[in-house]
Amino acid sequence: MSQKTFDQSQKKAVLLLADGSRFEGIAIGKIGTIGGEICFNTGMTGYQEIYTDPSYFGQIVVNTTSHIGNYGVEDEEQESDSPKIRGLVVNTFSQDFSRPTGTDSLQNYLDKNNIVGISELDTRLLVRHIRDKGAMNAIISSEDLTDEQLAAKLAEVPDMNGLELSSFVSTKEPYFVGDESAPYKVAVLDLGVKTSILKHLSYRGAYLKVFPAKTSFEEMKEWAPNGYFLSNGPGDPASMPYAVETAKKIMEEDYPLFGICLGHQIISLACGVPTFKMHNGHRGLNHPVKNLVSGKSEVTSQNHGFAVNREDVEKSDLVELTHVNLNDDTCAGIAVKGKKTFSVQYHPESSPGPHDSRYLFDQFIDLFKS
User: Which one of 39, 261, 271, 331 is the catalytic residue?
Assistant: First the structure.
């Protein structure tokens, strides 16, 4: 099945970076103007999962894969109820899709969800620039605005440092996932959780209650869960004292606790280990990580612009380093000494990505049996 969806003929668009770099291309998605922090993802597939990952809230994503849109979209590949990216930058954008299970074109999908984008850029040049200069704010416009007007709008975009975003993407009301008769109950603190993470926990015999980001430990405890999970999500972890306090209380009572990405950073902060904003972050599905406990290496899916300071992990009396990113030797996982708490700085649900790290969900469930 091949469907032609729109005539990309071609409204011009402009991408302006905070350092003054300017790129021209062709508009995709919604016609409009949008700003956010620009970053790049090196994954070769899974663009819909990337765009709907709440961890990208507030960001403009550059796909390094040169051809985007060719397999359309379908509901099963949503990681949340809608795209969470602020904007999109691609090289070649496909007007057609040919996957039999595809339900719509990527163009229609972006347009319906008010995502502004730009195509026909030299994304290789752009990514090298971001890699060297670091992640920075940017603005995309397919409207008739002068460079001066764009610069003024760009100046209004908030800096990601110090920005609390989880409360914007978290559920507003608790909800349940899985079989109520399952053997275990897991309380999930939704800081921007991906749907596939919930599926993996449910598949392993856990009945989940997903709580809003600012839910207190006392309220979650009333449900009498066997363990707690702190999810991935967007923004600066240092701006989230409410979640840090919740993690401290869970650990004080020594319940099983597992954190992924932002959840990992929150657990670290709860143990007195600081986080920092990375030069350009880790985003893709081919990042090598070494498990220091097993000695095995994993190819992992990652998406984060903040990280835990490895030197402080190694100095800490409370936590130990369990995983290391083999690209840059940063901290990729910790365990809390004497507690049933561990966390990783990557995505074991691997959607998209390889399945090397899914054992971590089993490791978490095994804590309920001890």
Answer: 261
